[in-house]
Specification:
462 residues, alpha/beta, 4-stranded mixed beta sheet, globular
Length: 462
């Protein structure tokens, strides 16, 4: 009998090496090579694993004209914000990977989903991290009364599959995939081989039997999903559960979704009764906004089909360091440097003598360039101590020449601002050049360059 062979596998890209390397030669990441023991297959060389629960003889080429469109049946999860992110609900036979930092509320979310789905469908909740008593305490606190909810505290793959074959659930929840192991694989739970093979087994079962599955994944120190990167490619949807544990608000964001948009987000508030949906996130994000204070500005970000009005705050203070500090939370660090360079070059503002701290209130992450002008206005306001009016919304992408470029969905953004009580909006001139924008109760201020924004700032009143 041959002895097991040891290789080193990169947790980021899955590349293999016969010896340990500090830096992966394929993806360039440091300290990602983990030792793995290759399993010696006892099967014949011709024996191969069937794909998606089917035997090899079942898969044959089909003429395109004979293909039929599948009727994907969706089930509502009981949480409208989650259904929005999923594209309308859980799809029959789909596999969803949910990831988030420890203590963010993943288990609470899954228990609430189990309660809603367990009213009329069989749900098997598999926990590899908590005992039955712990799950019972959480369920009582959340008021769970699912009549068809089954709980299994097990980490062995073969035992989980045996219980699933006996119960025949419609929905399976596995918390978490890193704790499950198979006796047939000679490696520790949570290793690359264990995670990949266990996930593949559950995916095959979901596709073959039409079971909707929710897998929970741990995160690594960089904030990504722990385990092999191929895991994200295997599942149908990847959701990130974001937010600060010290704050009450949580955000679910889809980074992959085969059955819906990847731009939608769901907003929740953590309470002692569990997660409550936030139907109007804009009001939540603006609830504590200070009045007549320099360094803050309202911006509008499109998250899928939903416009969100948020507040960006900037603090610009004289530096005491040889090199000024630059800190950003919720905005890309490199984007902040770009905006600062434009303001220094085009407006002559001396940011190089000051520390700059930037924060998007509420833990929201802004990735679209339409927020550039609002970020610039907040930094200008803090540096010059001139105030951005409370009823003013700023929208626009900032170019390197100081010009304001057009943005998408402008009318939808402005209408949302008008609904929340804003009376003025600075918008790109390019958006109104061919067709003037008219929104009831709003004064539209088209601008061509960043210098035109200075006229709308006002002196502080004592």
């Amino acid at each position: 009998m041959k002895s097991p062979k040891t290789i080193y596998v990169c947790t980021e890209c899955g590349a293999q090496s016969p010896k340990w390397l500090g830096k992966c030669p394929h993806c360039g990441k440091w300290n990602t090579m983990i030792e793995e023991v290759l399993q010696i297959e006892s099967e014949k060389p011709s024996a191969r694993r069937p794909s998606m629960g089917s035997s090899l003889s079942d898969n044959k080429a089909t003429a395109y004209q004979k293909l039929t469109t599948p009727a994907y049946m969706r089930s509502e999860s009981g949480l409208g914000e989650l259904d929005r992110v999923l594209g309308g609900g859980l799809v029959l036979g789909s596999v969803v990977l949910l990831s988030g930092e420890p203590g963010i509320g993943k288990s609470t979310l899954l228990m609430q989903i189990s309660d809603a789905l367990g009213q009329d469908r069989k749900v098997l909740y598999v926990s590899g991290e908590e005992s039955g008593g712990q799950l019972k305490l959480r369920a009582e606190r959340l008021g769970v009364t699912g009549e068809h909810l089954y709980v299994l505290t097990e980490t062995n793959l073969e035992k989980i599959l045996s219980e699933a074959d006996e119960i025949k659930p419609d929905v399976m929840i596995l918390d978490s995939i890193q704790t499950i192991y198979s006796d047939k694989i000679n490696s520790a739970p949570g290793s690359i081989t264990q995670v990949r093979e266990c996930a593949l087994t559950f995916i095959n079962k979901a596709k073959a039997e039409g079971i909707s599955m929710l897998l929970v994944g741990h995160v690594n120190k960089e904030g990504g999903i722990a385990g092999p990167k191929v895991l994200e490619h295997m599942v149908d949807a990847v959701l990130y559960f974001e937010g600060e544990r010290q704050q009450a608000y949580r955000i679910i964001r889809a980074v992959k979704n085969r059955y819906g948009s990847t731009n939608e987000i769901g907003v929740f508030e953590m309470t002692d009764r569990g997660l409550d949906e936030v139907a109007n996130p804009s009001e939540m994000l603006l609830s504590g906004r200070p009045k007549n204070v320099s360094g803050n500005c309202a911006l509008c970000s499109m998250e899928g089909t939903r416009p969100l009005i948020a507040e960006v705050q900037a603090l610009v203070t004289p530096t005491v360091f040889p090199s000024p500090r630059r800190t950003s939370n919720g905005v890309d660090y490199n984007r902040v440097y770009l905006i600062l360079a434009v303001l220094e070059k085009r407006l002559g503002l001396k940011f190089y003598q000051n520390d700059v701290y930037l924060n998007v209130v509420g833990g929201l992450s802004i990735g679209e360039p339409a927020a550039d002008l609002a970020i610039a206005a907040a930094m200008i306001s803090s540096l010059t101590d001139r105030i951005v009016p409370d009823d003013l919304l700023v929208i626009g992408e900032l170019g390197l020449a100081g010009e304001i470029r057009a943005v998408s969905n402008l009318e939808q953004r402005v209408r949302e601002a008008a609904r929340l009580g804003f009376t003025r909006a600075i918008v790109p001139y390019r958006n109104t050049e061919k067709r003037p924008l008219k929104v009831e109760g709003m004064r539209i201020i088209p601008v061509r360059g960043v210098y035109e924004v200075l006229k709308e700032l006002k002196e502080p009143t004592i």
